[in-house]
């Protein structure tokens, strides 16, 4: 059976009971969660299912790699290729602004890619989970973009930027275009 009542004599009180079970094993990768609102009319047989909200799994939509403090050194300092790091706060008071900057950053990278130029690598660091890393960098404002080239910090900027602004900054630092 999929469940056991608590009164059942086969009930296990072991602390590791159920370990090794992953919910993701039950679903396909393209599983989508959909809210549906039911509207009841006078009789119960006439119920309409109307789709309300379609939730997408956001991590699959982003091309920026999530980096934690354990992989920061390897990802940022040991690879000499150009890199843009977004330090963001997902659940803070600036969460919505951080989300929009991430979208703008990815839009800028896609536009660079379409022009047949190699865009910088994109990473993101969640300040809510990586408090020690963010404190070590001295970042207090979110969102903050860090521009790295050859394993060295060349520029950082806080606040909201559009994809056009990001294109000008990336072009200046990584492709030798005139100063924005």
TrEMBL record:
Domain of life: Eukaryota
Gene3D superfamilies reported in the protein's UniProt record: Glutaredoxin
Gene Ontology terms: cellular component: chloroplast stroma
Spans through the membrane: none
Annotated GO biological process: chloroplast organization; regulation of DNA-templated transcription
Positions of the Thioredoxin domain: 97-170
One Pfam family here: Thioredoxin
InterPro entries: MRL7/MRL7L, Thioredoxin-like_sf, Thioredoxin_domain
Organism: Ceratopteris richardii (Triangle waterfern)
Name of this protein: Thioredoxin domain-containing protein
């Amino acid at each position: 059976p999929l469940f056991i009542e608590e009164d059942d004599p086969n009930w296990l009180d072991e602390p590791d009971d159920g370990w090794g079970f992953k919910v993701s094993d039950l679903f396909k990768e393209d599983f989508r969660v959909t809210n549906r609102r039911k509207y009841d009319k006078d009789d119960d047989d006439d119920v309409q299912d109307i789709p309300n909200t379609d939730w997408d799994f956001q991590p699959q939509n982003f091309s920026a790699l999530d980096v934690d403090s354990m992989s920061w050194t390897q990802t940022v300092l040991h690879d000499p290729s150009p890199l843009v790091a977004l330090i963001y706060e997902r659940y803070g008071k600036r969460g919505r602004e951080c989300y929009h900057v991430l979208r703008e950053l990815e839009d800028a990278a896609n536009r660079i890619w379409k022009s047949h130029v190699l865009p910088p690598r994109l990473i993101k660091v969640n300040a809510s989970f990586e408090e020690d890393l963010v404190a070590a960098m001295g970042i207090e404002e979110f969102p903050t973009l860090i521009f790295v080239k050859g394993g060295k910090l060349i520029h950082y900027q806080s606040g909201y930027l559009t994809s056009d602004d990001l294109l000008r900054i990336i072009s200046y630092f990584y492709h030798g275009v005139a100063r924005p």
